[in-house]
Amino acid sequence: MEYITNGSGLISISMLIPVATTILIVFLPEKFTKPIAFVGSLITFLISLYTLKFLNFSNLSDIYLYENYPIVKELGISYAVGVDGLSEVFYILSTFISFLAIAWSVKDIQIKSRLKEYYSMFLLTTTFLIGVFTAWDLILFYIFYELTLVPMIFVIGVWGYKLRLYSAYKFFIYIFISSLFLLFGIMILSADSFKQTGHFNAFYPTLLHLHLPLNEQIFLFLLFFIAFAVKTPLVPFHTWLPDAHGEAPTAGSVVLAAILLKMGSYAFLRFNIGLFPEAAKHLWLVMVFIGILTIIYASWMTIAQNNIKRFVAYSSVSHMGFIVAAMFMLNFQGFRASVLEMVAHGFSSASLFMIAGFIYNRLHSFNTKTIAGSVKYMPIFSILVALTGFSAMGLPGGSSFWGKFLTIVSAKEHSLDLALIVIVSAFFSAIYMLYFLRNLFLEGKTEGSFLIFTDIRGIKLTVMLSLVVLMFTIGLFPFLFFNIFDASILNILHIVGMVKR
Amino acid sequence: MDIRLLLGSTNLYEFKYLLPEITVFFGAFVLFLLDIVMKNSETKKRVFLWISILFLALSVLSFSFKSAFFKDVFSGTYTIDTLGMFSKIFEIVLTLMVLPFLHTYMNKKNTFYYEVYYITFLSLLGMMTLSSSYNLVVIYVSLEMVSISFYIMTALFRGSFISKEGAYKYLIIGGISIIIALYGAAFMYAASKSLDIRAIMSSYNDANAAYLIVGMILFLLAFAIKIGIIPFHFWLPDAYTAAPTPITGFMASAGKLAFFIPLLRLVPYVNQHLYSSWMISVSILAAATMIVGNALALVQSDLKRLLAYSSIAHSGYILSVLSSNSSMGLKAAIYFVFVYSVMGLGAFLVLSVLEQAEEWDNQLPKIGGLYRNTGFLSISFAVFIFALLGIPPTVGFVGKALVFLGLAIKNIYWLGFVLILATAISTGYYVRIVVLMFMKDVEFRFKPHYDILENVSISLLVFLTFVLGMFPFVLWNGISNISEFLFKIANLR
Q1: How confident is the model at residue A501 (pLDDT cuts 50, 70, 90)?
Q2: Which chain B positions have a beta carbon within 8 Å of A192's beta carbon?
Q3: A56 domain residue, yes or no
Q4: Distance separating alpha carbons of residues A333 and B475, to the nearest angstrom
Q5: Shortest CA distance to B108 belongs to which of B374, B456, B455, B352?
């Protein structure tokens, strides 16, 4: 791994622009809030796209756009940001989804009050998310990881639906408490570094060279696991998610599902597997089974929901199960499947939450009984819903197809039985999407009762259309994405010592 | 000792090191005289405020700033060093911030007690001497000086029953703690024939071990009562609730800081013979304090009481890292003590502003929708609350991270998990405050009016909460030097 200092601080600039925009929003009158927020997040997104120019695509395991300023020298804490292929994907994804969330909010009739605070919260979230995905110092990572909580409880608690206070409370408590274990783990690593090298250090590439015995690796793996399992979420730790995602405003759910969950799975890949490879090899089967348990349990729970937002939320949990199961196959195709599925789920869950939000705008209800069949009367919207649904289901050409297919392939590398189990669980996740589509298209009241609706149009149409197009881009041209993150994945596999191609 | 001998051995030149203390003492004296001379009027109130501020500012200016500095003066009874200087400056600055709030508070209550100014000065003087001595007698006298001032200030509003009750409780338990300290000091003196803690701790041998350990435990016990360590905490919530809110802030910040300094000074002298008993007793006390303090705070409905229990819990966090007894642990403890005084004071000062409102009765639901009433105050309060909880990038996060690091380096993992559990409990009540403030409907209409000084104080505390957290090296480099220096001196003996 090499550090290439190019791009003259573009990552820091893209982190500062949302903050600067927030300051502008706070001090200018409220009528300027929406355009400023829109432009600010658009610029951030464009900068993140522009960073692709600085990457050398023939060697993406290096860290590009690297910046390092020491914060506390003695403790080895530094502001070290940069991107390798894997980070770059999530860096662009987070700026993109934040931009879409803000664009969607501009026309969202649910957001009537306290506009300044609302857009500030989203912009700050963008900054913190960029920090999470580009940090190379574990303490810096932790700082941003925690900071994403603060704007999010306000988004849920102030602009959410009926149970918003309870949900905000629950969301914060779950994630904050679990992340304390992560902090303790990081500090133990730093102390280990002190014992072995004489310097405190939380810098990821340095920590890779520590010699940790197996029992300590497992101990630290479990500490990190608690934090990321709650964040991802995996099944016994998932109960905050349906509440938080169900009660947040549409844009909040979009950001939560599309990016905030990816922080957990990204960290699993980067830290749990990267830093504790022996423990990962030791515990891989347990993790795969937790993943599969998550898929099956969450799929069943999805089918049982009568609130469409909670339905989408549970479907997210099930997808995250796939991501973790694929990742802990610990082989190349598994990693590929996992990362591609993270990106794909970023688009599809965003789209699904937008569908739920759009229907709520029209019908003021999330109840599956009330909204059944409502899509039929909005032709363009119905096409978007159908495409999203089929894509998330995993039909060939759709976004989830490669993720699921490669998971099965990677499971087959271990044993046929495992592959069969994965196939069965993939079947479950198809069931609930069919259920979703049947509910929106084929059930419901007699003709004519919904005729007053106007179809999706303008900015919301653009937003959803771009998501659908991206979903099918993943499905049809997965190598566009593979090319970016393959090298980094191989790098992690190299650490695990299981390079097989 | 012959008095002439004593005078002869006192080098008058050494008084220059006492300049800040002398300034504070002189300030108290001037205020006392003014109180007798001047008639009660609006002018007198202003004069008192500004004269106190003047003297405190002079006192800060009279420090000679040096890093890694150490000097014993007055035959070793008084020690001038960097830790002392740091903590004294902090104590003075914190007092400076409290005074404007005290002024408005008493104005609001229509009972202006001028004596509170010079009592504050005297307690500050006690804190300053407490922060800079290894001598048992000096520590004992300063402990009494601080405590007696606190008893008086707790019962400042003598018409209120609650004030009297709190002060009475504080007086009784504080008196007991002083006696215990004295008893412990006697044991230590008997064991080592010395009054200097450094000499006492290094005089350890098999013959006097029992006396020494009993003495040390009793002495620590006294400090545990003063700081409010569980199970010796019963006076603390009552006294903190009873005292006028700015005074509560003063007690929780500057007072706590001063009470912790002798404990911090003790750490480098805990040698390998004493280490295991020190580790076990301190870590058990710390674990109990963290858990019980937070659990009791969780069930409070009175905000002031809640913050009092949270103050107890924070003593537990600081104590837990002291148990690791390493240079890193000492650094973490010093950092945490300093930054707790910032965030704790901030939280109490916000409460004291809220008490301007007629409807305000410190009950938790009353804080609902505060953001709609006063944005600045509620955002500041949220910052302090998040800092107390330990959300980055505030000082509370850095403090907790350092505590984790201090525990990890000595492999005291179980205490780390206790800390996680305690913080988990504390999340409940801290987040409830934030949720109520920002997400509920307005409970009552309220427009606070601040003095410019009050505004500056709160802004400065918010600023410090962020800056010392985001750029910890501002404080860290100094603390790191102090800690290593203390260990170096201890190892020289």
Answers
A1: very low
A2: 408
A3: no
A4: 49
A5: B352
Q: How far apart are CA B348 and CA A312, in angstroms?
A: 44
Residue A215 resides in a domain: no
**b vs e for B128-161, b when ≥16 Cβ sit within 10 Å of the residue's Cβ?**
bbbbbbbbbebbbebbbbbbbbbbbbbbbbeeee
What pLDDT, in 10s, does the model give residues B429-453?
999 999 999 888 887 788 887 788 8
- E strand or H helix that includes residue A133: helix A115-134
Closest CA to B373 of B347, B389, B353, B346: B353
Residue A450 DSSP symbol: T
Whether A74 contacts chain B with CB within 8 A: yes
Provide the domain count of chain B: 1
Contact B408 A187 (CB under 8 A): yes
**Closest CB to A143 among B393, B419, B432:** B393
Residues contacting residue A262 through CB under 8 Å, at least 6 positions apart: A90, A93, A342, A345, A346
Q: What is the pLDDT of residue A64?
A: 87
Residue B417 host element (H or E): helix B413-439
Q: What are B91-144's pLDDT values in tens digits?
A: 999 999 999 999 998 888 888 888 899 999 999 999 999 999 999 999 999 999
Is the complex ipTM higher than 0.85?
yes
- pLDDT for A374-431, tens place per residue? 787 788 898 999 999 999 888 888 888 998 999 999 999 899 999 999 999 888 888 8
- Whether A257 contacts A231, CB under 8 Å: no
Q: What tokens were used for A312?
A: 């989408």
Structurally, how many domains does chain A consist of? 1
Q: Note the pLDDT tens digit of each residue in B360-394.
A: 888 888 888 888 888 889 999 999 999 999 998 89
CA atoms of A328 and A321, how far apart (whole Å): 11
Percent of chain B residues past pLDDT 70, beyond the cut: 97
Residue B470 Cα, gap to closest chain A Cα (Å): 8
Q: Domain range spanning residue A347?
A: 276-501
Question: Is residue A228 assigned to a domain?
Answer: no
User: Which residues fall within 8 angstroms of residue A365, CB to CB, at 6 or more apart?
Assistant: A371
And the tokens for A40? 């600010």
**Model-level pTM?**
0.94
Range of the domain at B302: 3-492
Distances (CA, A) of B250 to A28, B121, B263, B353, B379: 38, 12, 20, 15, 22
Q: Which among B330, B402, B421, B435 is the top mutation candidate for probing chain A, defined by the most A β-carbons within 10 Å of its own β-carbon? A: B435
Task: Find, in chain A, the residue whose alpha carbon is nearest to that of B386.
Answer: A150
- Give the Cα separation of B469 and B463 in Å (integer): 10
Asked if residue A285 is part of any domain, the answer here is yes
